[in-house]
Design goal:
homotetramer, 357 residues, Aspartate Aminotransferase, domain 2, Aspartate Aminotransferase, domain 1, 2 domains, eight-stranded mixed β-sheet, four-stranded antiparallel β-sheet, globular
């Protein structure tokens, strides 16, 4: 009953096999090998457009590099006030890009709105104000609260950001596969076709050991970012161990299948919790994260019974979702979550699970 | 006949097995797992003293973090003018620690001398001058030219750096195992017992996929550096995949055995080249790197025959080793170099190999 | 009728005379002269405690240096969301201290409250959270909306910031003299006695050409900050031209007299506007800044008549002060504002001025 | 007998008068005033080409901004190894431009040569190597050792830097007026006509209190640098006090006349010293700095008699100028140095002065 985070899971069998296939064989360092060379080609197929990419050690690294890619003196990145780049990266983006400020915007369930974005853009005629210069908009897909932007929503936000002042659009896709699966759209639909310029694509939460990417869509070059990556100490000498993980995830749609499994478990869990008198589910999951209000004694009892799940920070709960007498808990499912875990959890809660799939 | 670099090799069998043993099992993220927790304990045994450590994506990252650990406003790091931190990291240390300068010192075969160091220290009474403030001394073991400092040499340099102005002493140990094997000393002898405060210990060149560490010896704390590592996007969510590699390398002295193998191949290669009329070996290897002068036609012929090896940059060749009519080539052996490779290379050169071991 | 800003005024006669007295005479550079040496002694008298100080080119520079003085990896400065360090310095503090984040707090009329501060501190047990580490609290005196914290208010905030997690307390005193004059307290009462550790003290808005200081109270050292100042290109070779301005401002309480004059003109202006049917004054001034709502046609008429005054940015107007049909204008008085300016302005508005003093 | 540095002098009468003429009158802040607006126009006349410029607090600030203007990730600035940007600015450029490295080149008497530059450029084909990317060449005019590059020398260096890899060319002109006067050329000849893109022009050492500029010649824009200047805390609210100094210096060629006076005093001093048995002058001055070897007892006696002059750092003395038994002293003349000072100094040394002019 490990619902603490999807990054508690290990590596999926496909990734394991791919690494096992990599032997002591010698190959050129720093990306000169065949596997590393194959990554861009494979991504270009999947995204239906030519892309460039840079492999990174973590999603935080990919995010910091993306913001650095768009940085300018006095530059301001717009993001949701509870976004990972804003509250979970220990000011890494601000260290990698000295002089960077991230301006946190409000928005229901972790999603920015065109109204909210438009209001802020008005304060920066031509992108400039006494505060600084807007450089890019960063969207998180799926959001920190497990919701997914539709392609139309992303498109509307990106259009607004670009039309007047040509902002770059970055997507933090640590859980992009979960969003794509939920939306039942193509990877292209929800990224570059909707106006995304630069994508942090995460495989680590979804079944790899450590494999994240910063992807540059048409019109963007990875050259300058490649130099910064090197300065960040992220230019792996043997990147084929990372390329192998990525190719394994992309092969036979493993990344989407893993996400589909995690989403389904999350849906089952949410449905069970919503049916429970003692719980309430303020937002039905649109990815692999479930948010539900629990009573204190239930939390204690479940944790004693071996369930790992944590309260969501108070300051990150939107006012309209606040509930005074209970505690908002986050439960995250992964490729490794099994139906049994969900069943036992719900049963422990005194709820008979009705689970499909 | 891959002698281009030791980082062209893949992972050694022990590392491969360790990764294969890691399944999809769930464990706490960000170092809360058992393997990650075991790393410091294991290193403390091997170094015979309590240590703290931080796992990093690359050796460059570990070096940048080490220099950041010692950084101060106006801070100057002393290093050999051809050291990796000086010429191979694309100013990464200077980006991670804004306002950092690395002052390059001369010294035969990549080794600093107490004379040379003393001369520079005189320019900084109490560690301060109009130029800035000295913060640390960084030594590379083995050096860029394949030589190894003896414990006594390190001790003399560290003592000089510390006694007057309390400089920190960092060791870039990307090839430390090779030096230890050559010197036939303990890991402790050549590090903290000789005055090293902070060690970049690399396993990647020596048989891992990606596993580097910054180790803090007694009197140094990893706490502040841990925050900086997070900002560098190097706080892995599943570090047990890295811990597993490290523990496998340390188990049963695999790291030293791998190094011993590489050193022996290098010695065989160097001996063969030294015995060859058309080559000259200006420095006998004290690790796994061979430097030898070749005639242009031999280089061309060997490369056509499939040998990969590269010229050493002119600007990094010490004046006393320069030889006008030939080209200085670097040949690096690794755990994966087999005797056959060395034999064939020497035979191609028209030299009958006499190889021991 | 120049009410655009107090930094539109030139230098006051006392500063002019002091500069005129400085001839071509030779004196040691970089602070070795007698005037520069006298600054700390004079400030120590005025603040009734030994202080150290560093002269800076601008108030923004002093603020950036203050935040750098308290900076740590992953460090977060707390400030009002409309504070100068937050919205007016083009991310200068974030450039000088790479990896710095400034967290903007709400609070009526530019003033932080213990409730608001306490709420944020709860999110950082022991000063640390997943977001980063709190390093200091920055208070603006007088605030951006012309209000002044009482010594008791500062003391309560500083106590809260210090008692649990030992935050540093910085005061941005670009208009400190105006606040002191309004509060009728001593410089000590409203700074170190109330818990302020580090003070940006501005003379430029109050009658100097360019003279700002960062003052370090007991327990704080200026040494490290001095090195950073040098890196910022602010180590003047002839600082006596700046010291002369500062000493002239401090001599015979010129700084307080200038502030008193400016405050009185602001009070007269505010009283006149408050008595005017077409205007409203949502906050009576507690320094030299007047905020008043005007009708659009009045603004246009007055500006045509030569009055310079500007609207306050919408996003910086607290919700409880918002007024839909009118425009909030800021009018700033300085030592150079004469009664005639205020009278003519009010008369133009169709208001007969009743002015005291 | 103040020969310690030209920045020990105060302000020249013309600057004093200009400041005295500036009263308490009100004018728009941040450069909206008439004097600030006149600076670019006046500089454009003097340099015979349209220029943009940014006023700065110090020459170090202007230099740091210039290097930031040309900075790129992994960027390397080429400069003489004893240049001010290399050894006297406490790594300020490296702080303002995180990730910057300054590579110090050798060259007689502080002057780079096309041979030396060409040798380094060869290590960076297309401007790039494993070390990083070349961004600009910084030349100091007059050099740290008081020598002046001829327009032809600058032109040859700039051509070399530009033709292959398009490096920017920066000139640190803290003593440009002294060089111009010595060379008897126009300001244009020795700057943009010779290929200089960006000029730090210093008035502080030459008769102002604090007035330095970064000038951008054709093809360069000051816009981005302007944002960085703001982040450096150098956007003065009342820049007319600085503009007034600059305009006074440029009016009626005061800047060149002051330099001519200083150069003449330096020439007189050097001639006197060269004629003295106990001294030797290894380089005849080509600006206002005299370098001469003295015996220890003479130094002591002269300092006791009130002369201020300092030894030149050992590490900055070129090998070919080294003289074992004596001490190399630097003596700097300024607009404020009077003939009497030189005469008395030489007389004290037991040398009868024969001085012209």
């Amino acid at each position: 009953m490990m619902f603490a985070s999807d990054n508690w899971a290990g590596a999926c069998p496909q990734v394991q096999r791919a690494l096992a296939d990599l032997g002591p064989d010698v190959a050129p360092a720093y990306g000169g090998d065949a596997l590393s060379a194959a990554v861009n080609a494979r991504l270009s197929e999947i995204f239906e457009t030519p892309v460039e990419s840079l492999m990174m050690a973590t999603g935080s690294a990919a995010n910091a590099l993306a913001l650095a890619h768009f940085a300018k003196p006095g530059g301001i990145t717009l993001a949701h006030k509870n976004a990972h780049v804003m509250v979970d990266e220990y000011n890494g983006p601000e260290r990698v890009s000295p002089g960077l400020k991230i301006l946190g915007l409000s928005g229901h369930a972790g999603k920015l709105t065109t109204d909210g974005l438009g209001h802020v853009l008005q304060q920066f005629p031509d992108g400039v104000s006494r505060q600084g210069r807007l450089t890019c908009l960063s969207l998180t897909q799926a959001t920190e609260l497990g919701q997914s932007y539709t392609p139309a929503e992303i498109s509307a936000l990106a259009k607004l950001a670009k039309q007047q002042i040509g902002l770059g659009v970055h997507m933090d896709g640590a859980r992009l596969a979960n969003a794509i699966t939920h939306l039942n759209c193509t990877p292209a639909d929800v990224t570059w076709r909707a106006g995304v310029d630069c994508l942090s694509l995460g495989f680590t939460k979804n079944g790899a050991w450590a494999a994240d990417l910063l992807i540059f869509f048409e019109g963007q070059s990875s050259v300058e970012a490649g130099y910064i990556r090197k300065q960040m100490g992220q230019n792996f000498s043997k990147p084929r161990f990372m390329a192998a993980q990525i190719l394994a995830m992309l092969e036979d749609e493993t990344w989407l299948k893993n996400a589909e499994h995690a989403n389904q478990q999350a849906a089952n869990l949410a449905n069970g919790l919503a049916a429970c008198d003692k719980c309430s589910v303020p937002l039905m999951p649109q990815s692999n994260e479930v948010f539900a209000y629990f009573e204190a004694n239930d939390i204690e009892r479940l944790q004693k019974a071996g369930a790992s799940f944590y309260p969501w920070p108070d300051e990150d709960i939107p006012d309209d979702l606040k509930q005074a007498d209970k505690t908002l808990m986050r439960l995250v499912c992964s490729f490794a979550t099994c139906s049994k875990d969900v069943e036992v959890f719900l049963t422990q809660l005194g709820q008979s699970p009705h689970i499909k799939g």
